[in-house]
From TrEMBL:
<dbReference type="InterPro" id="IPR055166">
    <property type="entry name" value="Transc_reg_Sar_Rot_HTH"/>
</dbReference>
<comment type="similarity">
    <text>Belongs to the SarZ family.</text>
</comment>
<protein>
    <recommendedName>
        <fullName>HTH-type transcriptional regulator SarZ</fullName>
    </recommendedName>
</protein>
<keyword id="KW-0805">Transcription regulation</keyword>
<dbReference type="InterPro" id="IPR036388">
    <property type="entry name" value="WH-like_DNA-bd_sf"/>
</dbReference>
<dbReference type="InterPro" id="IPR036390">
    <property type="entry name" value="WH_DNA-bd_sf"/>
</dbReference>
<dbReference type="GO" id="GO:0003700">
    <property type="term" value="F:DNA-binding transcription factor activity"/>
</dbReference>
<keyword id="KW-0238">DNA-binding</keyword>
<dbReference type="Pfam" id="PF22381">
    <property type="entry name" value="Staph_reg_Sar_Rot"/>
</dbReference>
<dbReference type="GO" id="GO:0005737">
    <property type="term" value="C:cytoplasm"/>
</dbReference>
<keyword id="KW-0804">Transcription</keyword>
<dbReference type="InterPro" id="IPR000835">
    <property type="entry name" value="HTH_MarR-typ"/>
</dbReference>
<keyword id="KW-0963">Cytoplasm</keyword>
<feature type="domain" description="HTH marR-type">
    <location>
        <begin position="17"/>
        <end position="145"/>
    </location>
</feature>
<dbReference type="GO" id="GO:0003677">
    <property type="term" value="F:DNA binding"/>
</dbReference>
Length: 155
């Protein structure tokens, strides 16, 4: 018999499965496992892949702008960009108008990855109907925004 957390006394700790943060974290891990076979074919990690997607969306971004979009600190993003550059997927160069800024652009190989990644649609794997998929994505974006705002308010 499974006991629901609502049946437990108020002083009992909640089971891990009842934590929203764990549900989001473990769903992220499941996405990583689902993407892994395809990403392995491309020779990319998931963070490298989302970096490439962000550059498909808008090429020639500053490193700082890209970091904001990806929610990554420069100490995480810079080594990843160096690795992607060594792989031949992007190039980094100083902005001629502002030498303090580094701009990131896709190479021809980086743009070609898009064709190879078209089979990465996991919509069916989620088991969600199109309207459920959109609602869940919107709810998670709202959740993320609320959490970020609460942190900024506390600082």
């Amino acid at each position: 018999m499974h006991v629901k957390s609502t049946d437990l006394p108020a002083t009992a700790p909640l089971p891990l499965s009842d934590f929203l943060c764990f549900a989001v974290y473990s769903a992220n891990l499941a996405f990583g496992r689902a993407y892994k076979p395809i990403l392995d074919e491309l020779g990319l990690t998931y963070p490298q892949y989302i970096t490439i997607i962000a550059l498909w969306e808008q090429d020639n971004q500053t490193v700082s702008g890209l970091g904001e979009k990806l929610f990554l600190e420069s100490n995480t993003l810079t080594p990843m960009l160096k690795k992607l550059e060594a792989m031949g997927y992007l190039e980094r160069r100083r902005d001629p108008e502002d030498e303090r800024q580094v701009r990131v652009s896709l190479t021809k190989s980086g743009r070609r990855l898009r064709e190879k990644s078209l089979k990465m649609d996991l919509t069916d794997a989620t088991g969600l109907a199109p309207n459920e998929f959109a609602k869940l994505q919107e709810a998670i974006v709202t959740l993320r925004g609320n959490l970020i705002r609460s942190i900024e308010t506390d600082e």
